[in-house]
Design goal:
By secondary structure, this protein is α/β, with parallel strands linked by helices. It is 44% helix and 13% strand. It has two domains: 7-18 and 95-231, 3-Layer(aba) Sandwich (Rossmann fold); 20-90, no CATH class. The chain has eight helices and eight strands. The radius of gyration is 18 Å and the shape is elongated.
């Protein structure tokens, strides 16, 4: 049982949802329609490139791949990608990371609320959530795209308000430096989760780190001890 933390806020991709194969396949299939627009010298992105683009640019990662596309071709790619991604999700590509649902269930049993604060567009969040029945784990589900320029910090603030939780009673779990920075702007503790990442350097900006799902509960308890100590 935790002393101080009453709410865990999770990002979605590379943390709850294993999206690497999904994003790679959707991109590969989408590139077929604009193949003639891609310069011959351009190396096509792989899973590591996609992860890096998402880490730096969030749900707009597709715009920052080094494909040297004209604006019209990039718009066509984005539209094709959205269609392919939706089809692949419905076909069962992508999954929750093994052990994560069990962690969420255990937290619920201990009376700890969970919120999904996804770096994503609303349509993507809802499609993944419906396909993998994530609603049963999360009391609140929001995404950054709903907040325009306010992005992550505004979304996190809204989650706290809806949950009626003080910043000292919440812990934010993520994989992206911008997610940690926004959390710190609201005086929220952060936990960087490495199990879905090829490159772990981004987690250095978080207050705590967990290398695998099996470590997460002990790390949450450690964060809770420190939160309780500083709240006195």
């Amino acid at each position: 049982m935790l002393q101080q933390i009453r709410l865990l806020v999770f990002d979605l991709d590379y943390l709850i949802f294993d999206c690497s194969v999904l994003k790679t396949q959707a991109l590969q299939q989408s590139l077929i329609s604009i193949a003639d627009s891609i310069p011959h010298h351009v190396r096509l992105p792989d899973a590591a490139d996609i992860e890096a683009a998402f880490r730096e640019h969030g749900h707009r990662w597709l715009h920052f791949l080094e494909l040297e596309l004209a604006t019209e071709a990039l718009t066509e790619l984005e539209q094709a990608y959205r269609v392919q991604e939706g089809r692949l999700i419905e076909a069962g590509i992508g999954r929750s990371y093994p052990g994560v649902p069990e962690v969420l269930h255990m937290c619920h049993q201990e009376g700890i609320s969970a919120a999904l604060g996804a770096e994503a567009a609303r349509e993507y969040l809802m499609t993944v959530s419906d396909r993998h029945e994530l609603d049963r784990y999360f009391d609140i589900s929001l995404c950054t795209a709903e907040y325009g320029g306010g992005g992550t910090e505004e979304m996190l603030s809204d989650i706290l308000n809806r949950a009626e939780i003080n910043p000292s009673e919440a812990l934010v779990l993520g994989t992206r430096p911008a997610f940690f920075e926004a959390s710190h702007g609201l005086d929220l503790l952060t936990l960087g989760c490495a199990w879905g990442l090829q490159h772990k350097d981004a987690l250095k900006a978080s207050d705590f780190q967990s290398g695998c799902v099996e470590e997460i509960l002990p790390v949450i308890r450690r964060a809770d001890e420190i939160a309780a100590r500083f709240s006195r």
